[in-house]
Structures are given as structure tokens and as C-alpha cells.
Specification:
Layout lengths: L1 E7 L6 H15 L3 E7 L6 H11 L3 E6 L5 H11 L4 E4 L10 H12 L3 E9 L3 H18 L7 E8 H9 L7 H8 L3 E8 L11 H15 L2 H30 L6 H34 L6 E5 L1
Parallel strand pairs: 1-2, 1-4, 2-3, 5-7
Antiparallel strand pairs: 3-8, 4-6, 5-6
The structure holds uridine-5'-diphosphate and magnesium ion.
Uridine-5'-diphosphate (UDP) binds next to strand 1 and helix 3.
Amino acid sequence: MLSLVIPVYNEEVLIQELFSRVKIAMESIGPDFEVIMVDDGSTDATLKNLESCHEQDKRFKIVSLSRNFGHQAAYTAGLNYAKGDFIAMLDGDLQDPPELIGEMYQKACNEGFDIVYGRRIKRHEHFSKKLLTRIFHLVFSRLSRLENMKQVGNFSLMSKRALHSFLSLQEKNRYLPGLRAFVGFKQGYVDYSRPDRMKGEAKMSLYKLVTLGLDAIFSFSSLPVKICLYSGLIGVILIFFALIYILIGKLGGYAPVGWSSIILSVYFIGSVQLVSIGILGEYVYRIYKETQNRPIFIVNKFIE
Ligand code: UDP
Ligand code: MG
């Protein structure tokens, strides 16, 4: 059996279109499938529309969350309910073509891949968004040292055992493409060109995107802490040279040392310390959040 997980948040205008395209795509692979649609606390008619999809086809199941938890949490919720031998993930705005799932499935079955993900060779989105995601992918793939992280998102398919390992990673700041790469096994990709969303506004606001990016970087790299260590070291070396300079001035009797150099170094050390405290604070905050052990999502109801 094949499972498909789709998170949706205030997507009332495209549920019907999504339903028919997904249904056709899934039926073309085989009759034995389930689609788990996760309503991430929508405030419009999304849940009602999802229920009508369920009425039309009982293979479409709904997980309704108690409030908006964000799309990484919504995916995680749906994946917890998936029972298939292979499990696919698809955005609900039709930016990832459901028709490609068949190709991913064939690749996984025929070539023995545990994970097959979509790689965007072309994106039809706003220039600023493309630039932002490009910079992020570049920085992230450098820092995380994970392979093939450029231009990949959530759109993917994985085997039962890969999913099992994936879900065993219980961290709260979840960047799913990173966790998926972390899981390992034999991973492959299919290339596709990513259109803009079918209808409606993007539900990932700039703020949510930037937060996700920072989550990814902070949870997969220790570079932020190293930056403060290195800048602290550089500061110490500079102060050492400044001291020698001042001492020579004193001994030579021409003491060119005035307030400015002292004030400058005080400011310098002060700012290095501030940056360091800020970054350390971020990590302490994360440790605090992990120890709180809050659930990643809370399910309101499951319609099977
Ligand atoms: N989404 C969600 N919860 C949110 C934000 C988004 O479930 O808080 C869903 C949204 O309905 C869509 C998918 O996640 O199906 C991707 O969202 P969007 O298209 O806004 O993201 P982007 O394409 O900008 O990554
Ligand atoms: Mg989108």
C-alpha cells in the first residue's frame, strides 16, 4: 500500500482541485492507497471541504489538528498515521505535481531506493523568494555537511523503515528535509520544474520561512557558536597587539595612548561578548525547549 500525506492550512479554494488531481495520480499507480490530509488548524472552510472529499472517497482520511502548528508539524502528524509500505509527502498547494509520485514510486521499487525526493531544477516563483531560498540552500548545505540539500523540499517518498527512523527523531525544532537526509539509506531524486502555487496566497509567511531557515541552521550546525568563539579569539589577539603598542609608547616616553584606543577596545570586547551571549542564549533556549518535552502536535480528531 502507498500512503500520501498532505498538510493544508486555509486552502479552501483548492481542495477540490487537489482532490481530483491526487485521486487520478494515485489511481494510476494502483488501487491500494490512502491519502492523509492534515488540516493544520484552518479557520476557513478547509475542514468542511476535506470532509466532503472523505465522503466521496473513503481512502481520503483526515487528521485535524487542534490549532495551527506549522507545516513541518502538520507533516509529522500525518506521517504518524500513515500505514503504507511506502509513504509520500506532498504540499497541498499543487506546487509539487502529484503525477510525479508514480515516478518516485517506480524508482524506489525498481532501483531499491529507500528515499526518493524531488529536486527543483526550475522554480516559477517570485524573484525574492527564489533568491532567499537559494541563499538558504547554499548556506545550509555548506554548514550541515548533509549531501544533496540544494533545491530539495518536503516533496518525497520513503519506505516504511526509513519513515520509522525518520519519526524516531523526536526533536522539536524540525526541518524535515534535513532530518530526512540525516536518516540515510539509499537516497535518490527525480528532477522537476516547480510551478507557482495553483490558487491563493502562500501560507508560509516570510517570518515563518525565516524561522524555518534558522531552525534548520541552528539544529544542524554548530557554526553559530564557533563564530562567537573565533571572533572572541580574534578580539583577544587584537587587544594583545594593542597592548604591545601602548607599552612601547609608554616606555619610549611619547605615550600616544589616549582615551580613544581604550574606549575602542572596551566597545570591541563588549560587542563580542554580547554576540556570544546572544548565540549561547539561543542554544540554552533550545535545550530548555527540548527538556520541556512538549508534543510536536496535538490531534483533534482522526476520520478513518
Ligand atoms: N501549511 C500548513 N501550515 C502552515 C503553513 C502552510 O499546513 O502553517 C501548508 C500549506 O497549506 C501548503 C503547504 O503547507 O499546503 C506549503 O505551504 P506554502 O505553499 O505556503 O509554502 P511554500 O510553498 O512557500 O514553501
Ligand atoms: Mg507553496
